[in-house]
Amino acid sequence: MRLILIGCEYSGTTTLSRQIIKWVQENLGDEFGFHDHWKLPHVSHPNIPEGNTIEGMWQDWESGKGPDPTMTGHTDEENTQFLALSPKIRESFQRYHMEYHMGDGFYGDAHHNNVGFYFDEAVYAPLYYGYGGPGEYADRTWYARHIEADIMHKAPDTVLVHVKASADVIRKRMKENPHKFSLLQDKDIETVLTGFAHHYEVSFLRHKFEIDTSTSSIGESICEFVGKLIPNLQSEDRQKIMFHRK
Known about the structure:
alpha/beta; Rossmann fold; four-stranded parallel beta sheet; 51% helix; globular
């Protein structure tokens, strides 16, 4: 299975990805995970404290006892240092970062899943990162389609999931649970929502659907996800679900 979850920060992509991991483990019996390290400055894997595990970190976050693991890859000092890098250096880092995750070592696996990925770059880079705008070097809109052409060659079964929420709900979540080092600004919410919607619509990926989390519980969202995912799965994954349930 290959999934790409996209959406404005606070729409619920990380929360939904966590539930998807549990569903896959329960219904396919496979180890499963997401690369959720694309929004600057959170571009590293979780930093697991001594005596804990990644699963323990996720459980702590879900119970309100710990931070979002996807935001623990760097210390605060390292995050500040990363954001102080020039746009040129950040652009090249992210470009190599994306190309690395397009490698055969990833697409040779049964599962390769991302949250944000090149969609985050296409939306956030011109707005906040200082690079990737129309006509600029490594224009991120052009680059998104460049990557998708490669995905269509390596993994045409990839499923794109656009996780949505209304602007009012995004603002409410921002106020109730602000993310440290978040770059999303209140004045830009509509622009960002429109940006993700646009890139979803023009994506080359053939298998795709949307989930609106504005009024749905986590349980309702994962049920909607499963219902929309099944028709888009390749036969091998459908068979795994069938046999695992017997």
